[in-house]
From TrEMBL:
Protein name: Alkyl hydroperoxide reductase/ Thiol specific antioxidant/ Mal allergen
One Gene Ontology biological process: response to stress
Thioredoxin domain ranges (all copies): 517-679
Any one Gene Ontology molecular-function term assigned to this protein's record: oxidoreductase activity
Source domain of life: Bacteria
First and last residue of the signal peptide: none
UniProt cross-references to InterPro entries, sorted A to Z: Redoxin (IPR013740), Thioredoxin-like_sf (IPR036249), Thioredoxin_domain (IPR013766), Thioredoxin_ResA/DsbE_sf (IPR050553), TPR-like_helical_dom_sf (IPR011990)
Amino acid sequence: MSEQWLWSSRVRPVVDGSGSHSQNVVDRATYSGRSTGSLFSNSSIQLRTSLALALMITLMCPGREAQAQVTAKQILQAYSPRQKDVDYEVPTPADLEKCQVTVERLGKVSGYVVLGAQGQLLRRFMDTNGDNKVDQWRYYNHGIEVYRDVDSNFNEKPDQFRYVNLGGSRWGIDQNEDGKVDSWKSISAAEVSREAIKSMTTGDFGLLETLLINAADLRTLGVNAALQKKMLENVSQPEAKVRQIFSKSRDFTPKSVWVRFDALMPGSIPADDGKAETDLQVYENAMCIVDNGGGKTALIQLGELVRVGDAWKLTQIPEPIGSDSITVAGGVLMQPLLASAESAAPSVSPEMQALLDKLQKLDASSASLAGTPEAMAKFNNARIELLLQIVNATTSEDDKEQWMQQLADGYAAAIQTGQGGDSLDRLKDMETKLKKDAAASPLVPYVTYRRMLAQYSVEMNTANEAKRADIQKAWLESLEGFITTYPNSEDASEAMLQLAITEEFNGRIKEAVAWYSKLAAAQPQSIAGKRAAGAVTRIQLNGQPLKLSGTLLEGGSFNVSQLKGKAVLVVYWATWCQPCAADLPQIRALYEQYRAQGFEIVGVCLDVDTSPQDVNKFRVENKMRWPQIYERGGLESPAAVQLGVITLPTMILTDRAGRVVNRGATVQDLKTTLPQILK
C-alpha cells in the first residue's frame, strides 16, 4: 500500500468500545508519512474518537505499526467494558507509563495487544473479519481474559457481552444494542442466582425476566401443557411479586447482597417420565445466601431451576426463607414418587405425603444447619427418624429398597459426625436382618459396605496409636473379603479403590499399582475405574511428559501444553485444605522469584461443590495469581480423575521440556529443584 491513502468523504460516527457514539469525524484524510500523534492535537475531537481512528489506520496499513504512536496509557484510559460488573485489571498510575501496545496479526484477524508493566496481558482489541474495524474488545485480569464485548454483526456496536475464564460463564445477547442483556446464550445456575438477587434489589425487572422460564423455553424443552401452565403462573407478574416480598420481609431487602449459591447436584428427569419431550436437568430446592450487613445473613429459596440449552432458568420468583419457619417452594418438575406433575400417583397415601413433605422441608433447611458438628448431628438424627417412618409406611418393594438405601446412608452420615449415638448398632441390625430375610437382595452388599466404612471410622477414631496398625490390617482384609463375596456389587469398585489408596498411603507402591490396575481393567468406564487408571499414570509420571487439561475457574479451557518452554508446578488444592493454605506463602514467594525466569504455576481446585465465585474470592484474597482449573466434584472431578489424585495438596513439577521431575513435590523440593531446572 502506498504512503498516501484516502478514505470516503462521508461523515460517519466512530463507535468506541462501550458501544456509544463518539463525536462525528470527517473520514476524508490523507496520510503522508506524518505521525498519527497529530490525531490528538485537535482538542475538539474526543479521545476515544481519535483512538478509534488511529487504531483503524494501523489495521489498514500493516507497514505503519511503528508510526502509530497511540500509547497504551491512552487506550487504557479510553476504553472500559460495556457491562459495569467486570472484575478486570486496571494498572496503577505508576504502572501506566510502563504499559505497552503492540499489533498482532494472524491471516485476516488482527488487533491491538496492551501489555502491563510486568508484561502481562491487559487488553486485546480485535478485528476478526478483516474489515479494519475492531469488533471484539477483550479485557484481562492477571493475564487471563475475563470479559469481552462483541460486535457480531460488524456494525460497530457491541451486541454480545461474554464473561469467560475467571469472569464466569455468562454470555448475554443484546438484540437492540442498547447495552442491556435481552437474553442469555449461556449462564450457570450460580450466576442466575446472583443476577436474580441483583435484579430484585436494584429493581431491574427487565434483567429478572431474562432469568425466568418463559413460554418459548418450555416449548423448546417440550414440557407438557399442564406443567407449562403451572410454571408460567409461578413466574407471572414478577415486579408485583418482588414488591410484595420486600414489603413483608425483614430478611430480604433492597440492601441485601448476594453471597453464594447453595444446592445439591442437579438431577435428571428422563423424557419417558412424561413431563417433557426431552430429558430435563433440574436443581431441586436450590437456595442462595444474602448478606444484610452487620454480619447478618439470610437464606433465599430459589426453588427449581431448569436448564434450557446452555442457560439455567428460574421457575419461580426467589423468596426468603423465614427465620421462624421453612417455606418450601412449589416446584412441579421433581416431585417425590410422582410419575408426572399432572396427577398424584394413587399409591401415595395422605400419611406418606405428609412424611414426604416433612422430609422435603428438613432437606431444604440443611444449608442453615451446617455450621457445627452438633447441628449436623441433630439434622442427621432427625432425618433418620423420618426415613424410618417412610420405610415403614411404604408398600412398594422397589420404593422401600430406595428408602432403605437412604436410611443406611443416614446412619453412616450420623456416625461420621462422631455423634451418631446408636447408629452403628442400628446399621449392624439392619445388615443382620437383611442377610437373614433377603440374602439375595442388592441391599445386602449396599448396607454391608456402609457398615464396614462406619465401623472402621469409629474404630480408628477411638483407638490408641498401638492398635491402629491392627485395625488397618483388619480393614484391608475386610475389603478383600467384600470384593470376593460381592464381586458384582456396585461397591466392589469402591472397595478396590480403597485398597489401592490405602496401599499407596502406606508406601506399598507395587501393591497399590496392582489394585489400581485391576480396578481399571474391571471397570474402565466407571469413575472409580478412571480414577484408578489415572493413579497408575500418576505413580509412573517421573520422567514422562505431563498431560493435563481442564476447565478454568468459571469457564474457558486450559491445556498444560499452552505453557510449553516453561517449568510448571501443578498444585492440587482446596479452600478447606489447611496444609494447602500453609504452603501458600512460600509458593507465592517462589512464583515471584522465578516467574521471570520461566516458572509458571497451575492450580487445580478440588472443592466438591463450592461456587466458582467463592473459589475466586479465596484465590483473590490469597493472591494466587496463576491460572486455576475448577470442575466441581472434588476427587471425582475430571481434573482430579485424570491423574487419580488421592490427597491434598499434591504438587507435580515439570521441567521446560514438559517432563515430570517430581510427581509428589514439597515446598522444600521446589526450593532445591527450581534453580536447577531453570538454568
